[in-house]
């Protein structure tokens, strides 16, 4: 517990930190990467370049300061950070490095306003948050290790199958090199793939699992991004029999196990965790609307799979909307999702579980539509294929 004087200083300095948040994180990352280059491989440099990760860290620190005397408000945010950290393999000993650089950055940006008292208070507050995260992360590592077929850290897998799902998305099927079985995971979770050397750089990326649990493989489905480091490496260089290193499944964008109608609303490559959810829930009898937005049928992944499942299970209704259909495309609608298109798929009581994933603009539109139609906020679930961003700003 922090003492009252520390809590008061933290609350009094949150507004200044809010104003200078971007400056502080812009100072923080270069300090961290120059003083502790060993943490570089953990960070996706694209997210640094786009500024999305610095913004996510700044928002987290400010939210923590603002809620310093009511930490219960932060449990969802803490859980998301823990899932991301454990997916990437963040270790307790790295917290001192991050804390020291964060305090140096606060001092550099706030100047004289960052008195010894202020820095001392933030050091204590950071230490408290670090301890909360370290303990929660250790519980996840232990649970992953103790699960049947589970593991801690990195594990070697072999690519046993590749399959094109569209002109831009390919599925990769991995089996453990040690033949020691696989853990159960929740539909909607993601794993982390690590490469020690792509053009001289060590990188790691998250990929959603795109099939249900209980198979003898883990499957990811990857979109080839223009100039993307890892997606192009997977598409161009990884062949059957090649070894890769994977970290255990993580994430809290998971299928709620109830009987409510399920609406899976995805755009582009955001379809991947929805396929895992669909495959998991298909035989449950639960009403499932599988709504997918794509540019056209060439880039529309898993169409045949979803159509086949829907033919065999009358509880599944697929709906495809294409923004730029070609002459041979046969979507159910054209253009972009709007309120009337979505409303037609919802029960009158709106008592559904809605899962949304796609480009940021798509998710913003989906949230606005779902909210305007009266879907309860606690039943709308989002995942981000990068650091979390605001969907209302
Ligand atoms: C939880 C989660 C689940 C995910 N699941 C999937 C999935 O199932 N399938 C999938 O395909 N992806 C998924 N992703 C995304 C994935 O992790 C990678 O981000 C994606 O594959 C791109 O990685 P890359 O190394 O190929 O591209 P990167 O090298 O990271 O580049 C991505 C794009 O950004 C551009 N770029 C690079 N630097 C900048 C900059 N400074 N400013 C602007 N643009 C820049 C690049 O040219 C490229 O087009 C998921 C991400 C998360 C967080
Ligand atoms: C109290 C301390 C910390 C806080 C509040 C914090 C907060 C965050 C937040 C909010 C995210 C973004 C989550 C998301 O939306 O995806 C994140 C991601 C991340 N954090 Fe932390 N973090 C802390 C400590 C650390 C430490 C010690 C490390 C170790 C080097 C670390 C490494 C990372 C990495 C690598 C990511 C993913 C970045 C990316 O996508 O490139 N964090 N953290």
From TrEMBL:
Catalytic activity: 2 nitric oxide + NADH + 2 O2 = 2 nitrate + NAD(+) + H(+); 2 nitric oxide + NADPH + 2 O2 = 2 nitrate + NADP(+) + H(+)
Originating species: Shewanella saliphila
Lineage top rank: taxon: Bacteria
First-tier enzyme category under EC: oxidoreductase
Domain FAD-binding FR-type: 152-256
Name under which the protein is recorded: nitric oxide dioxygenase
Keywords, ordered alphabetically: Detoxification, Heme, Iron, Metal-binding, NAD, NADP, Oxygen transport, Transport
Domain Globin: 1-138
Cofactor: [2Fe-2S] cluster; heme b
Database matches in InterPro entries: Cbr1-like_FAD-bd_dom (IPR008333), FAD-bd_FR_type (IPR017927), FNR_nucleotide-bd (IPR039261), Globin (IPR000971), Globin-like_sf (IPR009050), Globin/Proto (IPR012292), OxRdtase_FAD/NAD-bd (IPR001433), Riboflavin_synthase-like_b-brl (IPR017938)
The protein's Enzyme Commission number: 1.14.12.17
PROSITE patterns in UniProt: FAD_FR, GLOBIN
Summary of the function given for this chain in its UniProt record: Is involved in NO detoxification in an aerobic process, termed nitric oxide dioxygenase (NOD) reaction that utilizes O(2) and NAD(P)H to convert NO to nitrate, which protects the bacterium from various noxious nitrogen compounds. Therefore, plays a central role in the inducible response to nitrosative stress.
Family: In the C-terminal section; belongs to the flavoprotein pyridine nucleotide cytochrome reductase family.
Pfam families: FAD_binding_6 (PF00970), Globin (PF00042), NAD_binding_1 (PF00175)
């Amino acid at each position: 517990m922090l003492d009252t004087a520390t809590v008061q200083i933290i609350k009094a300095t949150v507004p200044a930190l809010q104003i200078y948040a971007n400056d502080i994180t812009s100072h923080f990352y270069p300090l961290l990467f120059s003083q502790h280059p060993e943490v570089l491989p953990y960070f996706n440099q694209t997210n640094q370049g786009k500024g999305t990760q610095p913004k996510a860290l700044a928002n987290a620190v400010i939210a923590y300061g603002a809620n310093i005397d009511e930490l219960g408000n932060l449990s969802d945010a803490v859980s998301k950070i823990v899932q991301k950290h454990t997916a990437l393999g963040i270790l307790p000993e790295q917290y001192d490095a991050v804390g020291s650089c964060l305090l140096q950055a606060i001092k550099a940006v706030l100047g004289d306003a960052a008195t010894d008292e202020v820095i001392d208070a933030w050091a204590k507050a950071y230490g408290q948050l670090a301890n909360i995260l370290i303990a929660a992360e250790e519980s996840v590592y232990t649970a992953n290790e103790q699960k049947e077929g589970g593991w801690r850290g990195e594990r070697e897998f072999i690519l046993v199958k590749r399959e094109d799902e569209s002109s831009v998305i390919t599925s990769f099927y991995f089996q453990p090199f040690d033949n020691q079985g696989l853990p159960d995971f929740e539909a909607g979770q993601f794993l982390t793939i690590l490469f020690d050397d792509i053009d001289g750089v060590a990188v790691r990326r998250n990929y959603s699992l795109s099939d249900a649990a209980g198979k003898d493989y883990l499957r990811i489905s990857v979109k080839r991004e223009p100039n993307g480091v890892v997606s192009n490496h997977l598409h161009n260089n990884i062949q059957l029999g090649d070894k890769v290193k994977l970290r255990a499944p993580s994430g809290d964008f998971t299928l709620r196990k109830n009987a409510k109608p399920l609406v899976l609303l995805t755009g582009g490559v955001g379809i991947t965790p929805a396929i895992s959810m669909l495959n998991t829930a298909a035989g449950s009898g639960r009403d499932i609307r599988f709504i997918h937005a794509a540019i056209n049928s060439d880039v529309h992944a898993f169409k045949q799979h979803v159509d086949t499942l829907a033919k065999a299970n009358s509880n599944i209704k697929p709906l495809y909307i294409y923004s730029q259909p070609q002459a041979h495309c046969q979507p159910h609608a054209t253009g972009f999702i709007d309120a009337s298109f979505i409303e037609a798929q919802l029960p009158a009581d709106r008592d559904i579980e809605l899962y949304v994933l796609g480009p940021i603009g798509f998710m913003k539109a989906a949230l606005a539509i779902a909210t305007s139609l009266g879907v309860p906020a606690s039943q709308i679930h989002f995942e981000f294929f990068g650091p979390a961003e605001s969907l209302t700003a």
